[in-house]
Design a protein that fits this description.
The strands form two sheets. Strands 3-7-6-4-5 form a five-stranded parallel sheet. Strands 1-8-2 form a three-stranded mixed sheet. Strand 4 (291-294), helix 13 and strand 5 (310-311) form a beta-alpha-beta unit. The chain has helices at 6-17, 61-71, 73-76, 94-97, 102-110, 131-142, 161-171, 173-176, 191-196, 199-208, 224-234, 277-285, 298-303, 317-320, 340-351, 363-369; strands at residues 36-37, 247-248, 274-275, 291-294, 310-311, 331-334, 357-360, 376-379. By secondary structure, the protein is α/β, with parallel strands linked by helices. The longest helix is centred in the N-terminal third of the chain and has 12 residues, at 6-17. It has 16 helices and eight strands. It has two domains: 45-241, Cytochrome Bc1 Complex, Chain D, domain 2 (Orthogonal Bundle); 247-379, Rhodanese-like domain (Oxidized Rhodanese, domain 1).
Length: 380
């Protein structure tokens, strides 16, 4: 019999977090023992297809508030003010809520923004939210709206991407990146964003900006035609976050410790907390004994993680801490922020007496971009 995996433990715990057991697999979903290749997860987060949940039904804002407190405040702030973790955008922005449809909000909660710190929270991707739970969160976000909703879905951009390219480079690339990959502002090349953001949403956002955020309005600096050109260029920004990395099963309780017969690593911790990615990569290559914890949502672990890392979501430390060795084995947590979720995990573990813990300083995004080994995972 195969030993239980950390993923299987967290999967059951996360499903119960929303008050429901895991949904029974449908005919298109392999049985749990078979495992599900991340590339074949229904409504793959790396594609443009998205989650087809039908028209959004009204959710319950009170239930959504409780879910938001558990899963969203870490990055977006208790009041939706944003920037609690690096560049997570404000969700209480009236300029956002005025033009963001329920469909847009729902898809970005359920499907996330794969390849970015914004996790896919939907259960089809390995996250803890059912369709109903995602709708509840949308209802709570909508409760912040104080201005009337403006339907911009019928607006169409009529611009030229060639003319828009230099305008984007001049006015947008500093924050959004030359390829829309995001620097200090949300990514624009993400497939979920491209699928859910209408032309009208983009036009109005560029024109008006977002009050009380770094996103400025450009209607006084660019002509209407130029804004249409920028939107046309934004539509050319596409990438597939699904990399061709090796696929692996999550570690079992018996295989959680990497290189169990190896020597302990010697790390130089910045501020007593942060270990450089280069030191971790070198220690892994040298066969040092350690445990790696992916502090993000399990859906992020599926899309890409450090080989051998266990899915260990920041909101499940209470349930999962007992699975870890507390014998001096070094435990390193990482996330994409690069410190918010991993910092929460390390703080919680240290409060429980796990002294040999550290945070991967630069996070998984740097790890990936530096060319260090990566793997994809399977859903149970």
């Amino acid at each position: 019999m195969r030993a239980p995996s950390i993923f299987a433990l967290s999967w059951c715990l996360l499903a119960s977090a929303c008050g429901t057991a895991p949904a029974a697999p449908d005919a298109a979903t392999p049985a749990p023992d078979a495992g599900v290749d991340a590339a074949a997860v229904p409504r793959d987060a790396g594609s443009d297809a998205g989650t087809d949940a039908g028209p959004p039904e009204p959710g319950d804002a009170a239930r959504g508030a409780a879910l938001y407190r558990t899963y969203c405040t870490l990055c977006h702030g208790a009041d939706g003010q944003g920037y609690a973790a690096d560049d997570a955008p404000a969700l209480n922005s009236q300029d956002l809520l005025r033009i963001a449809s329920d469909e847009f909000l729902y898809a970005n909660v359920y499907d996330g923004r794969p390849g970015t710190p914004m996790s896919a929270w939907g259960d089809a991707h390995g996250g803890p939210f059912s369709v109903a739970s995602a709708r509840d969160v949308v209802a709570f976000l909508r409760s912040w709206a104080t201005e009337p909703f403006e339907d911009v879905s019928a607006l169409a951009a009529d611009g030229d991407a060639g003319r828009g390219a230099p305008l984007f480079a001049e006015h947008c690339a500093e924050c959004h990146g030359e390829r829309g990959q995001g620097v200090r502002a949300p990514t624009l090349d993400n497939p979920v964003f491209q699928r859910t953001a209408t032309d009208g949403f983009l036009l109005r956002t560029i024109e008006r900006g977002r009050r009380d955020t770094p996103m400025e309005g450009f209607e006084d600096r660019l002509t209407s035609a130029q804004i249409h050109d920028v939107v046309a260029f934004v539509r050319t920004l596409r990438r597939d976050p699904m990399e061709e990395w090796p696929i692996e099963d999550p570690p079992t309780l018996e295989t959680l410790v990497l290189h169990p017969g190896g020597e302990a690593p010697t790390f130089t911790l910045r501020e007593g907390r942060y270990v450089p990615a280069a030191e971790v990569a070198a220690a892994l290559a040298a066969g040092r004994r350690m445990v790696l914890l992916d502090a993000r949502a399990t859906s992020d672990w599926v899309l890409g993680h450090i080989p051998g890392a266990a899915p260990f979501p920041f909101f499940s430390v209470d349930e999962l801490a007992g699975t870890l060795p507390n014998d001096g084995t070094f435990i390193i947590a990482y996330c994409a922020c690069p410190h918010a979720a991993s910092g929460r995990v390390v703080d919680d573990l240290r409060a429980r007496g796990f002294a040999s813990t550290a945070i991967l300083d630069e996070g998984i995004v740097h790890w990936r971009e530096a060319g260090y080994p990566m793997a994809r995972g399977r859903l149970p």
